[in-house]
């Protein structure tokens, strides 16, 4: 979440790869060199080659840059002609005479600048003779100052360019020449280039990989909303071209709800219209039609579906998909005969760029494509875009789809459940499922409005078949209330569920435990007892529910100060959660938060890892209701490790997310932490003074100053009152004080006057009887 600087790739971006290329430039002074620069589409190969060309020109080298014909129909040696024809046109006549009449006649068949009758048919050209003549040209153009020859899009060039490259490796120019072949990493052309080798290691291969997060963030423009920024970094996956395309234009109009990564692969594009489009100018017209058709069909797709959607014959579609494969845009799926886009964001951008009318027509043809024997779920996303009310069969399909994807694509599952509930006489299950999806994607207030309309009165009997369904609905209604800080109401909702029903639905007991952990329950051991019941309710065969219960047990032990028991439970839950994988952990993403809370005081590095894993999972699945909590945990963990920049960025993100959820108490806690961080290390109690106050202890110490009571501090930090009292005892002991007033006095001192550890503080100064509290409502509280 740290903010970077806008602009083109500059210092620090691809600096390592540029240094490797300039090293090869230096080595070529004494011995001709050869470099392959490869990478996936839009990863920045051409930009890096141009930066090398500028560096070479700055060193007074001659520079010749060319690229293969973008439509694949160029004349022989097109890339060499593009690079060297202007050089030959302006060359010294004496240098041309030194080439000899025979070479000039041969070169005139290829280079228009030499005034000959060049041929369009590569079979009429002696490739080996031309390669020898071009090597002589390179030696003449290089002279003593050196020549950089860059051939871009070499994977599209004909076989003659690969043979020319092999000739240069066998017979390098007797001059300072560096040849750089720039190509993508897939297809037969790239395979020929990848096979280039030399026993002396004369070929230097520099693969360009996606940028790390910090470098990718540095390319984004300023002013992006925090959540939009995170989604761009996730979807672009470090590919600069995708970063530019995704950051151009306005954020998606989704009310701030994040989209799941899986939504990029199939169905309506969740991205907003963008002026910056992907560079697809090299594709032939059939391949471009096939790309649009594949984007409409969604991942995965077959050649038959592309043919039907793009109105191509199967043979034409097969050639078009082969071209997309050679360009590195699509690749084979794990099932034979199926394909998918290598980058789901590229598929979503293509789908979006097709436009409303053209895209709708393509999707209708994709929906009407012949059955392939595989249920890919492509029909459901297409149904989401139709305006007609669904039939009974379609509504059942939509509800089934929403139930299967509610944890992995909650925003789209909400739309599917809403559509399923539109049919007359729809059962309450579809509406309740929609409410659950609303909570998951981060719209708890909207979900509560729907629950209020649906919820039956207490005296109304519920059918036995619906007990589990209504118990699960109670869990998610309580979750929505907990997110908004209405914890007493959430407890009433859960207490209305019988103990037998809670035992039948492990999520109900887990939600009650989480609620007790957050609500400052004054009864000692209440959360711990609930956590133990949650472990008993969750069978070990249900690994997700069992690991979630163990994580809650670890957090409950930590809240009671039982560090050893907390570490033991966390050590059991961690491997189970890690083994679930992304999809398996989707229903229990919050378990990573409780693991982080359980180890926060004893193992800050592990706590940061837990919060980061949870944040990434929540972002991947589009579970917006958890992003603020994970960001707040990350902020505290980063503060504990001394990384104030990251801590401030995470706290700012958390405050924004809690505001979006309308969780104002949590937003105030994140804002308090942000202000605490921004005061600087010199104002952090115990920081850099040899006093080992933890992050939580420092936060609580800073909250004493505004006059907050223990209950208010507990509510602000989502911990129990007993835990606040425990922390206060630790703070008094570490600072050597006996009252809250003395803590406030110490916090008001500059660092130079802070007493040594163990030194008496003296009497506390008089303070005003009341101070204004930052708590919601703004009512002043009397100091205690």
What percentage of residues falls in helices of 4 or more residues?
A: 55-70%
Number of strands: 10
How many distinct helices?
38
Helix-strand makeup class = mainly alpha
Largest sheet: 5 strands, parallel
The coarse silhouette is elongated
Measured by DSSP, the beta-strand proportion falls in: 5-15%
Low-confidence stretches: 1-10, 371-376, 685-690, 750-784
Q: Taking all residues together, what is the mean pLDDT?
A: 82
Span between termini: 38 Å
- Rg computed from alpha carbons, rounded to a whole number of angstroms: 32 Å
- Strands of the widest sheet, in order across it, are 2-3-4-1-5
Textual characterization of the structure:
The chain is mainly α and 784 residues long. The protein contains 38 helices and ten strands. Strand 3, helix 7 and strand 4 (177-184) form a beta-alpha-beta unit. The longest helix has 18 residues, at 604-621.
């Amino acid at each position: 979440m740290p903010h970077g600087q806008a602009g083109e790739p500059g210092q620090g971006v691809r600096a390592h790869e540029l240094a490797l290329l300039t090293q090869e430039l230096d080595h070529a002074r004494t011995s001709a060199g050869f470099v392959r620069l490869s990478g996936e589409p839009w990863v920045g190969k051409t930009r890096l080659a141009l930066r090398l060309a500028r560096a070479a020109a700055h060193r007074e080298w001659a520079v010749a840059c060319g690229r293969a014909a973008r439509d694949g129909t160029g004349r022989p040696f097109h890339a060499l002609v593009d690079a060297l024809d202007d050089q030959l046109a302006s060359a010294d006549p004496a240098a041309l005479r030194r080439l000899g009449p025979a070479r000039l006649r041969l070169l005139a068949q290829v280079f228009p600048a030499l005034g000959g009758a060049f041929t369009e048919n590569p079979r009429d050209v002696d490739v080996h003779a031309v390669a020898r003549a071009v090597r002589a040209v390179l030696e003449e153009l290089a002279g003593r100052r050196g020549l950089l020859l860059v051939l871009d899009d070499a994977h599209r060039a004909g076989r003659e360019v690969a043979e020319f490259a092999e000739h240069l490796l066998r017979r390098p120019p007797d001059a300072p020449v560096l040849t750089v072949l720039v190509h993508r990493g897939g297809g037969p052309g790239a395979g020929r280039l990848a096979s280039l080798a030399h026993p002396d290691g004369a070929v230097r291969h520099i693969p360009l990989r996606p940028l790390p997060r910090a470098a990718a963030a540095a390319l984004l423009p300023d002013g992006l909303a925090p959540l939009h920024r995170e989604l761009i970094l996730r979807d672009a996956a470090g590919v600069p071209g995708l970063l530019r395309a995704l950051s151009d234009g306005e954020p998606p109009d989704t009310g701030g709800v994040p989209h799941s990564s899986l939504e990029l692969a199939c169905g309506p594009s969740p991205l907003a219209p963008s002026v910056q489009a992907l560079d697809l100018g090299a594709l032939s017209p059939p391949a471009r039609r096939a790309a649009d058709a594949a984007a409409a069909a969604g991942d995965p797709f077959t050649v038959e579906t592309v043919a039907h959607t793009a109105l191509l014959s199967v043979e034409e579609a097969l050639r078009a998909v082969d071209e997309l494969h050679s360009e590195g845009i699509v690749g084979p799926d794990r099932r034979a005969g199926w394909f998918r886009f290598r980058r789901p964001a590229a598929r979503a951008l293509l789908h979006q760029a097709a436009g409303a009318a053209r895209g709708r027509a393509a999707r209708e043809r994709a929906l009407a494509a012949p059955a392939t024997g595989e249920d890919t779920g492509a029909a459901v996303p297409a149904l989401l875009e139709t305006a007609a009310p669904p039939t009974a069969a379609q509504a059942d399909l939509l509800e089934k789809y929403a139930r299967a994807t509610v944890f992995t694509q909650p925003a789209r599952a909400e739309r599917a459940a809403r559509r399923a509930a539109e049919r007359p006489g729809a059962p309450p299950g579809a509406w309740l499922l929609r409410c659950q999806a609303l909570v998951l994607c981060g719209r708890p207030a909207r979900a509560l409005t729907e629950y209020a309309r649906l919820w039956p009165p207490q005296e109304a009997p519920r059918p036995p078949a619906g007990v589990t369904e209504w118990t699960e609905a109670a869990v998610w209604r309580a979750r929505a209330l907990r997110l908004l800080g209405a914890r007493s109401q959430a407890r009433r909702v859960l207490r209305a569920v019988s103990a037998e029903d809670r035992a039948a639905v492990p999520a109900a007991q887990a939600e009650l435990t989480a609620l007790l952990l957050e609500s400052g329950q004054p009864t000692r051991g209440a959360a711990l007892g609930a956590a133990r019941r949650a472990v008993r309710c969750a069978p070990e065969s249900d690994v997700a529910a069992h690991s979630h219960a163990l994580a809650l047990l670890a957090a409950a032990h930590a809240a009671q100060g039982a560090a050893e028991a907390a570490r033991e439970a966390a050590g059991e839950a961690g491997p189970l959660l890690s083994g679930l994988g992304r999809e398996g952990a989707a229903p229990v993403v919050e378990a990573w938060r409780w693991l982080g809370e359980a180890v926060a005081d004893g193992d800050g590095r592990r706590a940061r890892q837990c919060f980061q894993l949870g944040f990434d999972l929540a972002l991947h699945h589009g579970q917006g209701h958890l992003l603020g909590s994970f960001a707040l945990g990350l902020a505290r963990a980063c503060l504990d490790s001394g990384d104030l920049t990251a801590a401030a960025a995470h706290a700012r993100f958390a405050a924004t997310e809690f505001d979006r959820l309308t969780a104002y108490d949590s937003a105030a806690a994140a804002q308090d932490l942000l202000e605490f961080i921004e005061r600087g290390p010199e104002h952090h109690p115990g920081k850099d003074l040899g006093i080992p106050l933890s992050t939580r202890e420092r936060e609580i110490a800073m909250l004493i100053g505004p006059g907050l009571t223990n209950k208010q501090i507990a509510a602000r930090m989502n911990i129990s009152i007993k835990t606040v009292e425990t922390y206060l005892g630790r703070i008094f002991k570490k600072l050597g004080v006996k009252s809250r007033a003395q803590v406030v006095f110490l916090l008001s001192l500059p660092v130079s006057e802070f007493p040594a550890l163990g030194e008496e503080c003296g009497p506390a100064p008089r303070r005003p009887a009341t101070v204004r509290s930052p708590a919601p409502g703004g009512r002043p509280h009397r100091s205690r």
